[in-house]
C-alpha cells in the first residue's frame, strides 16, 4: 500500500464521497419502474458526491485547481497542481442499476499525472497509484497482464452513443479488433477500464472522445503497474488528445497498429 500524506488526502476524500453514492445506488433500483425514471435522482447523487470531493480536496490542498465533471474548472492559486475529478464514472450503468461504476480522482503536477485513486464502492475495490511508488488494489501490488499473443487478449473499449462520437470509426475499430483477439468488452466506465488493465483483468483498453476526469487517475495506475498508455493514435498526450490506448508494451503497440490500419 502507498503511505503518503497525498494518498491519505485522496483516499479519505474518495471514501467520504462513496458513502453517499453507495447509499443512493441502493435507491436507484427502486426508481427504475417510475415513469420519469431515476434521471434527476442520479444527477443529484452525482452532484452530492462531487461537492463532497471538492470540499475535501480544497480543504486539504487549498491552492490546487480542480477540473470537475459537473461544476467545470475551478482555478487555484497553485498553477502547478490540478485535480481531475469524476464523482461518478459509469453514470449510465449507475442510472440503470448496473453495479459497475467508480469515483475517480487524479492529480496533475506540471502537466504530468502523479497520483490517482479509483474506488468501486459496490465491490469495495480501491485502486491507488503514485508516481514511483507503484499501483495497488486493496494493498495488493498490481502488474499489467503478461500475455503477448493478441489472440488470447481480452480488450475493453468505450463506445459513442446517441449524439456523441464517430460511430462509423468505432465500428471499424471494433471489427478489426474482434477479428484478431480473444474478446472485446464495453463495460461502461473508463476509470474501471483503465484499472482493470492495471490489474491484468483486461489486457487492453482504448476509447476516443473521453474526458480528462475519466482517465487521469487510470493513466498513472496503468503506468505504475508497468503498462503503456498513449492516445488512441499512439501519441504521448492522452489527456490533451482526449483519447486513450493502454496495455503491456507488446500488445499496446499492436493495438495502436490495428486501430491505425482500421482508419487508413
Ligand atoms: C463515461 C465513461 C465511459 C464513456 C462514457 C462516459 P461518465 O463517464 O466512463 O467510458 O464511454 O461516454 O464518458 O460520464 O459516466 O463519468
UniProtKB/TrEMBL annotation:
Signal peptide: none annotated. The keyword Magnesium applies. The gene is suhB. Gene3D superfamilies: 3.40.190.80, Fructose-1,6-Bisphosphatase, subunit A, domain 1 (3.30.540.10). The keyword Magnesium applies. Belongs to the inositol monophosphatase superfamily. CDD domains: IMPase. It comes from Methylobacterium iners. Its EC number is 3.1.3.25. InterPro entries: IMPase, Inositol_monoP_metal-BS, Inositol_monophosphatase-like, Inositol_monophosphatase_CS, Inositol_monophosphatase_SuhB. Its cofactor is Mg(2+). Pfam families: Inositol_P. Keywords: Hydrolase, Magnesium, Metal-binding. This is Inositol-1-monophosphatase. It is an enzyme of class 3 (hydrolase). It catalyses: a myo-inositol phosphate + H2O = myo-inositol + phosphate.
Amino acid at each position: 500500500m502507498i503511505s503518503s500524506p497525498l494518498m491519505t488526502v485522496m483516499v479519505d476524500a474518495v471514501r467520504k464521497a462513496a458513502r453517499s453514492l453507495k447509499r443512493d445506488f441502493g435507491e436507484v433500483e427502486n426508481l427504475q419502474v417510475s415513469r420519469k425514471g431515476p434521471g434527476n435522482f442520479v444527477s443529484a447523487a452525482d452532484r452530492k458526491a462531487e461537492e463532497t470531493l471538492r470540499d475535501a480536496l480544497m480543504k486539504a490542498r487549498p491552492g490546487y485547481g480542480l477540473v470537475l465533471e459537473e461544476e467545470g474548472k475551478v482555478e487555484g492559486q497553485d498553477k502547478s497542481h490540478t485535480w481531475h475529478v469524476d464523482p461518478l464514472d459509469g453514470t449510465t450503468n449507475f442510472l440503470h442499476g448496473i453495479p459497475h461504476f467508480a469515483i475517480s480522482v487524479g492529480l496533475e503536477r506540471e502537466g504530468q499525472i502523479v497520483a490517482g485513486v479509483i474506488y468501486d464502492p459496490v465491490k469495495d475495490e480501491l485502486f491507488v497509484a503514485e508516481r514511483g511508488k507503484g499501483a495497488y488494489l486493496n494493498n495488493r501490488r498490481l502488474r499489467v497482464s503478461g500475455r503477448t499473443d493478441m489472440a488470447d487478449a481480452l480488450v475493453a473499449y468505450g463506445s459513442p452513443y446517441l449524439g456523441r462520437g464517430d460511430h462509423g470509426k468505432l465500428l471499424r475499430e471494433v471489427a478489426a479488433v474482434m477479428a484478431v483477439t480473444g474478446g472485446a468488452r464495453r463495460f461502461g466506465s473508463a476509470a474501471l477500464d483503465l484499472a482493470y488493465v492495471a490489474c491484468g483483468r483486461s489486457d487492453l483498453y482504448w476509447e476516443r472522445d473521453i474526458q480528462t476526469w475519466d482517465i487521469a487517475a487510470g493513466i498513472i495506475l496503468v503506468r505504475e503497474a508497468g503498462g503503456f498508455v498513449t492516445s488512441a493514435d499512439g501519441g504521448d498526450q492522452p489527456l490533451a488528445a482526449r483519447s486513450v490506448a493502454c496495455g503491456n508494451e507488446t500488445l499496446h503497440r499492436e493495438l495502436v497498429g490495428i486501430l491505425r490500419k482500421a482508419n487508413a
